[in-house]
Design goal:
UDP-n-acetylglucosamine1-carboxyvinyl-transferase, Chain; about 30% strand; four-stranded mixed β-sheet; 12 helices; about 425 residues
């Protein structure tokens, strides 16, 4: 188990590019593996989650070859039954999206993963896929999932009981192979990367507010397709929050996705007192791409309301860390944090308290009172990559060194995190 030590700094300054977006990378790789012909994906996420998707797709018969560290060539086509269970390791996105695709393939598949993934709720994806005609057995709604796919599924209209881009995407991907038109009606807007990715592969998708439809009987168009993955906003949020935490800081993150459904954290940082600007440079695959510019300016208090949570669920730990540097932040409506890689509410509050931050756990969120400076100390990230980065931000503004246990898990989404941290610390 690796422990990361972070020392207090005078400022966080510099510019950088962050790894490719994890959510987009999963979708590009899966759709490329379905499409006949050869696709090339540049700036692919280098994290362990996307590596799990790559390994599963190889086991299903697709040819995936890295031409460089973050450039993947994919030759897709018909999938075959895997010779062994498909191991998604710790990737919930891999499990849920692949479940949707495998439900439409007429063979038996088993999706499994590590101890953490086997605790996460999968009934929310089992229910719609079963309604479409797939046979899925599980352990009390949790992995391993044994999927008996069908050559032709039946279209459904589905409203996920919990807003989830992963569930929405699983249903839409299964719907590509269904008879009829599959419709997902959301109660709150979630990430729309699947809706933007489908047309890149010649697949029809209609979006009308919170309603998304895909006609059945579709197959991805033949390649060649060349795509570039924008920088990950969730990774960019780490440095934006760091710059907002330490006086004299200024960070520019370039080449990052500015998808409106991914940058809700920027408004929260403004409310916490930071100076935040963005500039749009291009559109890549329907995704707006540009730069995020953040300066430390002031300290203000704010609340994050339940309706905001779906648009910044992954950024809540680093926003809490930013609040720990002189602000008060209250979050509600975030009970979904309890079924991530860890119970992020309990683990976050426990870690912040260990670092001297006044924090209170609530059933659906937390309260941070950062007006007394963090002391530093030792916090356990409990194998959760988001908590490693959050505790590191606290350490930058603390009164003494911060030691973060289980820090190796940061490789799930950001393998170069420590190197970038050292480069920006002043």
């Amino acid at each position: 188990m690796y422990s990361l030590t972070v020392s207090p700094v005078r400022a966080v300054r510099g510019d950088l590019e962050v790894p490719g977006d994890k959510s987009i990378s999963h979708r590009y790789v899966m759709l490329s593996a379905l499409a006949p012909g050869r696709s090339v994906i540049e700036h692919l996420s280098s994290g362990a989650d996307v590596a799990a998707s790559v390994a599963c797709l190889r086991a299903l018969g697709a040819e995936l070859v890295f031409e460089d560290l973050d450039v993947l060539a994919v030759t897709g086509g018909p999938w075959r039954q895997a010779a062994a269970p498909l191991d998604v390791v710790n990737s919930g996105t891999t499990m849920r999206l692949l479940a949707g695709l495998l439900a439409a393939h007429p063979f038996r598949s088993t999706l499994t993963g590590d101890e953490s993934i086997q605790r996460r709720p999968m009934q929310r994806v089992i229910d719609p896929l079963t309604a479409m005609g797939a046979g899925i057995s599980s352990r009390d709604g949790r992995a391993p999932l044994v999927i008996h796919g069908r050559h032709t599924l039946t279209a459904v209209t589905w409203t996920p009981p919990v807003p989830s881009a992963q569930v929405k995407s699983a249903v839409l991907l299964a719907g590509l192979f269904a008879s009829g038109v599959t419709t997902v009606v959301e109660t709150a807007a979630t990430r729309d990367h699947t809706e933007k990715a489908l047309p890149l592969f010649g697949l029809a998708c209609e979006v009308n507010g919170l309603c998304v439809r895909v006609p059945g009987g579709q197959r991805p168009a033949a390649g060649p397709v060349r795509l570039r993955v924008p920088g990950d906003p969730s990774s960019a949020a780490v440095w934006a929050a760091a710059a907002a935490s330490v006086p004299g800081s200024h960070v520019v993150i370039r080449g990052v996705s500015l998808n409106p459904r991914r940058v809700g954290f920027l408004d929260v940082l403004r409310r916490l007192g930071a100076e935040v600007t963005t500039s749009l440079d291009s559109l890549e695959g329907g995704e707006p791409v540009g730069s995020i510019n953040v300066r430390y300016r002031d300290c203000s208090d704010t609340r994050i309301e339940p309706e905001e949570v779906p648009g910044l669920i992954d950024e809540l730990p680093v926003l809490a860390a930013c609040a720990a540097a002189g602000r008060r932040l209250e979050v509600s409506g975030a009970q979904e944090l309890r079924v991530k890689e860890s119970d992020r509410i309990t683990a976050l509050v426990t870690g912040l308290r260990a670092l001297g931050v006044a924090s209170e756990e609530q059933p659906d969120g937390f309260l941070i009172n950062g007006r007394i400076r963090a002391s530093g100390g030792r916090a356990d990230a409990v194998g959760d990559h988001r908590l490693v980065m959050a505790f590191a931000i606290v350490g930058l503004a603390a009164g003494g060194p911060t030691h973060i246990d289980s820090a190796q898990s940061v490789a799930v989404s950001y393998p170069t995190f420590e190197a970038d941290l050292r480069r920006l610390a002043r």
